[in-house]
Amino acid sequence: MAARKSIETAPRDGSKVTVYWQDSDGVMNESIAQYRSLDRLKAAGGDWDESDAGWWAYTDGHTQRKIEPISWRPASDDADADD
Q1: 68 in a domain, yes or no?
Q2: Domain of 58, in residue numbers
Q3: Residue 67: what pLDDT?
Q4: Whose CA, among 21, 28, 51, 79, lies 20 to 30 Å from 6?
Q5: Bridge partners of 74?
Q6: Would residue 25 count as lying in a domain?
């Protein structure tokens, strides 16, 4: 498994990565997430503003929400092939 990295170094190009974040109950979670810029959100349609830009993940099979991850790693373990 690839080592976790600071979220500040995560790709913000719309690619999906595995992120680690803490929920309101203090529980650490691991999710596949994607950074969505305001331009990307607006291109998908709907009424978005600057506060909507950020990291988005499915919290269950049907619900997406904006999260504040603290670290990340590549979504695929294939990235370890070079290690």
Answers
A1: yes
A2: 5-72
A3: 97
A4: 51
A5: 17
A6: yes
The answer for residues whose C-beta is within 8 angstroms of residue 43's C-beta and 6 or more apart is none
Token representation of residue 74: 């590549």
Q: Is 12 helix (H, G, I), strand (E, B) or coil?
A: coil
Max CA distance (Å), the chain: 43
Place of tokens 């504040």: 68
> What's the CA gap between 26 and 1, in Å, rounded?
24
In terms of pTM, does the model score above 0.85? no
Query: Tens of pLDDT along 5-41?
Result: 999 999 999 999 999 999 999 999 999 999 999 999 9
Distance CA 77, CA 54 (A): 24
Question: Average of pLDDT values for 58-62?
Answer: 88
Predicted local distance difference test score (pLDDT) of residue 77 = 57
